[in-house]
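# nightly structure sweep
# worker-07 picked up a monomer target from the shared queue
# config: single-sequence mode, recycle default, output format = structure tokens
# input follows
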Amino acid sequence: MTRYTHMSLMLQEIKQQPEALARTLREEAPKVAALGRFLAGRDIRLIVLVARGSSDNAALFGRYLIEITSNIPVSLAAPSVHTLYHARLNLRNALVVGVSQSGEGTDINLVLENAKQAGAFTLGITNEPRSAMARLVDEVLLIRAGKERSVAATKTYTGQLLMFHLLAAALQQGKGLEKLRQLPDLASQCMELEPVVQSLVERYRFMNHCLVVGRGLIYANVYELAIKLMETCYVVSERFSSADFLHGPVAMIQADFPVIVFAPPGKTFNGMRRLTQQLRTLRAETLVISSEASILKQAAQTLQIPVKIDEFLAPIPYIIPGQLFAAMLAGVKGLSPDRPRSLKKVTKTL
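# output follows
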């Protein structure tokens, strides 16, 4: 078995996440009460999230979380509507949230500028306090992750998920805030899966395609793991909601086809278990990420989450074994996850 001997920047930054989450909670949670009071006075009727790449994946979680907890409709913006088609939207009584680890995404910031002119209140979620985004928006929630040097985002992705938890708490007058204190410890517990992942990745050395499947609040991680496998391991990774998967893509499954399944306990679990049973019948190579024995026993391979986690908190700890898998798989493939070909840390598009 090939051992992962070089610790990439990506792997180092994955390991920094429990501390980064704790620091972010400590520094940013005190803003929740004041932000909640302000938003209550704005009569917010629509929330629009603007992002690209991994930040857009985090925004997908934000959409599920905020719609479920606040009952306010949430839209994922299409920046090209603003940058290429120059549409002028009516955004009165809207909250427009820009999400960018660098805060320098040209198109994201242009949407925020247009939103302010259209009457929206703007909020930025970024890791860079001196960024263009931070200067532009009405309010900022800062990810206190420290400098992220690897091109592949890890600690800023989980930091963005945490920011959406804080925004959801603000929209509920602080409800749910105390539960977030569990997240750094839950992240630490999932980090203990590192040796399990290391023993597993050699099996996937020659994998060049796979599917990633999940549903609901965990769906953002489906997109995030797929993009991590694409950019660090050059694996063609399709991602599907389990519901959409059964409407057609399941037809491509044959013996030994790799399928990675996110299955935390909660509203979507029974459906994920039935899907995994079907994949077993089709003799797929299923790798299941879950705490629950009833689905793990259906899998070809498993990454067992060491503790049962509330589905609202699950996305942050559950992505960690996926991040470890991508970083270590890149290692056994002889690739650098820190410097993917053709990619830069900051991508500016219009």
